[in-house]
Amino acid sequence: MEIYEIICGAIVLLLALLIIILCLMQDDKAQDSMTSALGGGINESFYGQNEGNTREAALAKLTKILGIISLVVIIAMNIVVPWIIKLTAAN
């Protein structure tokens, strides 16, 4: 294994562990379908109005960002690293 493969593998492993931890830290989603059918679907509570500013929203956003970063690293690991290895082997 080349050093590039080891580095990318370690990054992917670290990102996977961070995503798992972030997913476990998030609260369970409530099933709003039944409550909105009975209550008209209006959530006028303080929590409902400020849902984008909560800890859960920040965790969800960070999880999405880490997922995108891990996808980019995996694609780079499968496309760019073999290309670098071929270049270094040719010299």
Report the sheet-strand fraction: under 5%
Total separate domains: 1
The global form is elongated
Judged by helices, strands and strand pairing, the structural class is: mainly alpha
Unreliable runs: none
Sheet having the most strands: none
Number of strands: 0
Q: What does the radius of gyration come to?
A: 21 Å
Helix percent band:
over 70%
Mean pLDDT: 80
**Strand/helix succession:** HHHH
Give the terminus-to-terminus CA distance: 18 Å
Please, how many helices?
4
The assembly state of the depicted protein chains is single chain
Notes on the structure:
By secondary structure, the chain is mainly alpha-helical. The chain has one domain. Helices cover about 80% and strands about 0% of the residues.
Quick structural gist:
The protein has helices at 3-25, 32-39, 46-49, 55-90.
